[in-house]
Every structure is written in C-alpha cells, then in structure tokens.
C-alpha cells in the first residue's frame, strides 16, 4: 500500500475526525519552529508517544462531536461518527427503550445487503436510506434498526439514537428478541467478505461493546436467555447463543451473509478477545543497558552504527520511514483506531518535542 493510501486509510479508521492533513503531519511534515526547519517524526517516535498522548486525550471530558460524559470509555475511544453526522435532523419516529442493566448478553452481527462499491461520501446517504426503509410502513420500526454501522473504509457510525450513551434496544433481532447490541456491515457479504478495514473496525466495535457490557467473548463462549418472541424463537422458549452471533442465529434469515458469518464463527471471537486482552495488559518495557564505552571515548550520536535508532535524516532509516504510520504497532497502541479528535494533537505534540530535542542537540536554527 502506498503512503498516501495508508494515510487515507488511517483517516477513515479515525472516523473521519482526523484529517488526511493531520495524518500527513504525523508521518512526514516538518514542523516550523522560529525560522528553522526540523526533521519530521518517524513511525517509531510517533508510536512511542502516541500511546500516552492518546490515553490522556481519551479521558478528556469533551471531544468534538461527542457528549463524552455520557459515553463509556471503551465506546468513546472508538472514534465512532455520532448519529448527527448522517441523520441531518432525522429523529426517531417512536419511543426507544433501553435494555435493563445486565441484560445485554450477546453481540449480533448484520449486513445491509446493499452494494459494496460505494464511495466514502455516499455513506451518510446510504444510512439515511436504511432509516427510511426501517421507519417506513413495511418495517414500522421507531428508528434505524442497528446500534452501529461499519462501512467498507473502516468507519464506525452510531445508528439508533443513543447507542453511544447506553444499551438502546435495537430491532432486526427476530421481532422482540432483544438482549443484544447490533453491529452492521454496510454491504452485501453473502459471497464477498468485508474489507480488511471493515473487519478491523468491527473487531474494535465488538471489543468495545463487550468491555462496556461485560460480555465474555473467548471462542466457545455461550449465553442463555428466555425468548421475548421472534420468527425463530417463540415467546418463552429457552435460547442458547454464542456471545458473538450472526443475525441468522436469532431469525429466519441468511444475514449477515455466508462470507461475514464465517468471520462471526471462526475469526471474531479469538480476535476480539485478543484485542481486549492487549488493552488490559500493560505494554512490556525493556531496559537499556548503560553506555559501556571506554573512558574518554565520545558517545555515539543517535543513529550511529550499533544503536537501535536511525539518524533523523539518514537514508538508512528507509524501511522504517517507508512503511508509513499504520502498522501492527499502531493498531496495538490504539486498539485499531485512534481516539477521535486526538490525531492532530498527537502529531503536533510529538513534532514539537522532536523539534525541541533537535534544537538542544544541534543548537538554535540558522538565521
């Protein structure tokens, strides 16, 4: 993948709230300090500071576009686009109810059975179309059915009103089956699997929902409840379900499509659980041995042979810088997604630190 494509992918994975310009700043843009130009961040330096800075900003009381005081930390850190970003004033047409405390027992994956070739600018219109169909006379639901959407670019969208703030009961669960929170791929995944960005975003969404509602997600995890009534499970019927399930497990349907259902059964439980574990475990640290250079010897400059850090402007840094900023390390730091609204701040903060360090080591800039 080209650097530009990686930047665009990162911007989309950030829910669109971090601009491509911010992402370019993270990867390659020099910072101007006074009248001098200082070297840009490489990916290692970005990653080194991003974990601490992202954590700090994820705990701020207010982030742009979010009433964050009402959103649980795991969902806040997703960087999901809030409902108003697609709704354009469309409100629920009927009463919405919240699930009772402790009654969110499993997570249900859907797909919209719509085309897979849409552009980023099409997404909000597509969701408004789903809203119209769901609230129309055929379905008669009070709002769009799903709690969250995931588009093919990896952006997560709040669907049913209030889903970022609490366990709003969804529809499309086989009547009034309930007991679940819904994540829906925008696309048709009967034969075509979700894109890689969409797969990663759904994993992040399921992990955040599982953390929020205390759901066990390890492979083989099951839950049970008494049906409230559905076209598959009549009222009062005992139901046993995997804690990450597909719509077809609750209703007479082929949703979420064979290709996505394979992920539900064979991929998501392990990957969601691994992501949750990585966030719960403090990152490993390594100790750097003291410099053992002979007395009187000059210390090696940063980036010299025998050190682990490449020189700031050295061509030898090649692969490290050419890989761009998106990779497994960044995914591990951020859970696959940057905290919404913090990307540009992270980039600027780290570049300012880099500039200050450069000035300290090399003197003030010329002129």
Could you characterize what this model shows?
The chain has 367 residues and is an alpha/beta fold. The protein has 2 domains: 1-63 and 312-367, no CATH class; 70-266, Lysozyme-like (3-Layer(aba) Sandwich), CATH 3.40.80. Helix content is 35%, strand content 10%. It has 12 helices and 9 strands. It has helices at 3-13, 20-27, 43-58, 73-76, 84-87, 123-135, 196-213, 258-266, 268-280, 318-322, 328-334, 343-362, and strands at residues 31-33, 36-38, 106-111, 148-150, 156-158, 180-185, 222-226, 238-242, 244-246. A 5-stranded mixed beta sheet has the order 5-4-6-3-9, with helices on one face. Strands 1-2 form a two-stranded antiparallel sheet. The chain has a two-stranded antiparallel ribbon with strand order 7-8. A hairpin with a 2-residue loop joins β1 and β2 (36-38). α1 (3-13) crosses α2, α3 packs parallel to α11 and α7 (196-213) packs across α9. The longest helix is centred in the last third of the chain and has 20 residues, at 343-362. The protein starts with a helix and ends in a 5-residue tail after the last helix.
Quaternary structure type: single chain
Main sheet: which strands, in order across? 5-4-6-3-9
Structural class category: alpha/beta
Domain count, please report it.
2
Specify the biggest β-sheet: 5 strands, mixed
The named CATH superfamily of the largest domain? Peptidoglycan recognition protein-like
- Please state the second-level CATH architecture of the largest domain: 3-Layer(aba) Sandwich
Element-level helix/strand string = HHEEHHHEHEEEHEEEHHHHH
CATH C-level name of the largest domain: Alpha Beta
Radius of gyration: 23 Å
Strand percent estimate: 5-15%
Give the helix proportion (percent range): 25-40%
Mean pLDDT: 72
CATH topology of the largest domain: Lysozyme-like
Number of helices: 12
- Got a strand count? 9
Low-confidence stretches: 2-41, 43-69, 286-351
Please report the distance between the alpha carbons of the first and last residues: 40 Å
Please tell me what the overall shape is: globular
